[in-house]
Amino acid sequence: MLLDERKKRILEAVIEEYNATAEPVGSTKIATDYDLGFSPATIRNEMANLEELGYLEQPHVSAGRIPSSSGYRLYIDTIMKEKTLTAKEKQVIDEILKNDIIKFETLIKEASNIISRLTNYTSIAIGPQMDNCTVEEIKLVKLGQDRLMIVILADNGIIKESIIKYDGTLPEENIEIFNNYLNHKLKGMNFNQIYENINSYVEDELYNISTNIIPLVVELNNLLIDKNVEVYMDGTKNLLELPELKQENTLKNFLNIIETQDALKELLRSGYDGNINVYIGQENVFDDFKDFTIITYKQKINDKEIGTIGLIGPKRMDYKKVIPVIKYVGEALQEKIKGGGNFDDGNKGNNGDSGNNQEARDTSDE
Amino acid sequence: MLLDERKKRILEAVIEEYNATAEPVGSTKIATDYDLGFSPATIRNEMANLEELGYLEQPHVSAGRIPSSSGYRLYIDTIMKEKTLTAKEKQVIDEILKNDIIKFETLIKEASNIISRLTNYTSIAIGPQMDNCTVEEIKLVKLGQDRLMIVILADNGIIKESIIKYDGTLPEENIEIFNNYLNHKLKGMNFNQIYENINSYVEDELYNISTNIIPLVVELNNLLIDKNVEVYMDGTKNLLELPELKQENTLKNFLNIIETQDALKELLRSGYDGNINVYIGQENVFDDFKDFTIITYKQKINDKEIGTIGLIGPKRMDYKKVIPVIKYVGEALQEKIKGGGNFDDGNKGNNGDSGNNQEARDTSDE
DNA sequence: TCTTAGCACTCGAAAGTTTTAAGTGCTAAA
DNA sequence: TTTAGCACTTAAAACTTTCGAGTGCTAAGA
Question: How far does the CA of residue B260 sit from the closest CA of chain A (Å)?
Answer without folding.
Answer: 10
